[in-house]
Every structure is written in C-alpha cells, then in structure tokens.
C-alpha cells in the first residue's frame, strides 16, 4: 500500500536543491554577506594602517614627549614658587602672596575684614585678588626663564657636537666638498689630496693647458 505524496512536495534529487523556492536565494545572500565582510575587513585594515602611519610620524612623538616634559617641568617650577619663594615673600609681607586681596564689595551682612579669599567669597563679598595674579606672573617669568636656559643649553651642546664633527672634516680645494681629514682622495672629484700621491700623479699624468687641449683656441 503506497502512501499519498503531497502535491507541493519536491523529490530529493541532486538538482532539486537549487530549484527549491526556499533555497533559491541562499547563494546570493551568502555572496553579499561575504562581500560585506571583506569590505569591512579592508576598511579596518586601512584605518589601522593610517593610524600606524600617523603615530610613526616624528612630529607626533616629539609633540607627546614635549607635552609630558612640559607638564613635569611646569609642576617643578610651580612647586619652587609655592614652596620656596612664596613663604619668603609671605614672611616679608606678613601673609601669603596668594591671600593678598582687596574687598571691593562687602558681604550682605556688611562685613569687610576677612583673613582669606575663601572666607570672603563664602560670605558673599567681591574681592580683587591681586596677590594670586602676581604669583601667576612670577610663575610665568620663572617658567620662561628656565625654558630659555634649557634651550640655550641644548643649543650649546648641539653647536659643540657640530664643531667637533667639523674638525674631523676638511674642504676639498678643487670641488669645495667636505671630505674626512684622513682622506687621501676626494670622493666627489677624485682628486688626490695627499701631496706625495698628488706629485706622483702629476709625474705620470702631467697637466695640459686649455690652449694645448683645444686646437680651435690655437687657430
């Protein structure tokens, strides 16, 4: 007794997998997904390559080092001003330099005498903090002075290295190019720089004047 086969069923044949309505669009979907994945991977690789090129630039590294050193240098100068110079100035003035201020508007309760800026502002008064401004000016001049001295030190060291390097070189009297002092022959114009070798070369290859070398000039 045979079973009834539904009319909408398809026989399982090797060619029926691609002709089935449910599997007809799967290859196209897989192909589009693969293309999208490849495109995404290519974009990510491009971003990583551009980032590596950006980081490998000398300017970026120099800028990062300069920012770090500048922050550390600024903290050192601020500590010197706040911990060394400010107490001396405060001892002479009777109070810390940052706490020198003038009340230009009294508090709502009429009080004008305050020992610190924080107390004056907490009471609601308006103050002119000239002491803090003077300390910031001192910080600026000290930082600029130390930066100038630091740059000058670097320039002196660089000039010294260049001068020492210049002592190891000499200028060829024929082509005016720099060659090592111990060089026997110029690497640019191939002239013998050693006097003994130069005299031997002149003995075997005597110099010829332009008039002798150019028959047209004689005519």
TrEMBL record:
One Gene Ontology cellular component: plasma membrane
Membrane-spanning parts: 60-81, 133-151
Compartments, as annotated in UniProt: Cell membrane
HAMAP family (UniProt xref): MscL (MF_00115)
Stored InterPro entries: Mechanosensitive_channel_CS (IPR019823), MS_channel (IPR001185), MSC/AndL (IPR037673), MscL_channel (IPR036019)
Keywords annotated in UniProt: Cell membrane, Ion channel, Ion transport, Membrane, Transmembrane, Transmembrane helix, Transport
Pfam family, one: MscL
Similarity remark: Belongs to the MscL family.
GO molecular-function term, one example from the UniProt record: mechanosensitive monoatomic ion channel activity
Signal peptide from the UniProt entry: none
Protein name in the entry: Large-conductance mechanosensitive channel
Residue segments, region Disordered: 1-26
Membrane topology: Multi-pass membrane protein
């Amino acid at each position: 007794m045979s079973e009834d086969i539904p009319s909408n069923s398809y026989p399982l044949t090797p060619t029926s997998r691609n002709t089935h309505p449910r599997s007809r669009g799967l290859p196209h979907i897989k192909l589009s997904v693969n293309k999208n994945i490849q495109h995404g991977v290519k974009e990510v690789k491009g971003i990583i390559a551009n980032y590596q090129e950006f980081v490998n630039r000398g300017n970026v590294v120099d800028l990062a080092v300069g920012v770090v050193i500048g922050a550390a240098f600024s903290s050192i100068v601020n500590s010197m001003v706040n911990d060394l110079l400010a107490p001396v100035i405060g001892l002479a003035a009777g109070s810390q330099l940052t706490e020198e201020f003038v009340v230009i508007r009294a508090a709502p309760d009429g009080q004008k005498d305050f020992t610190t800026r924080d107390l004056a502002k907490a009471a609601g008064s308006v103050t002119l903090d000239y002491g803090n401004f003077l300390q910031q000016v001192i910080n600026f001049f000290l930082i600029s002075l130390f930066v100038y001295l630091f740059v000058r030190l670097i320039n002196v060291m660089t000039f010294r290295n260049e001068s020492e390097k210049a002592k190891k070189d000499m200028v060829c009297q024929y082509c005016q190019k720099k060659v090592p002092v111990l060089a026997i022959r110029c690497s640019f114009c191939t002239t013998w720089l050693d006097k003994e070798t130069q005299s031997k070369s002149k003995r075997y290859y005597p110099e010829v004047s332009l008039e002798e070398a150019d028959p047209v000039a004689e005519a």
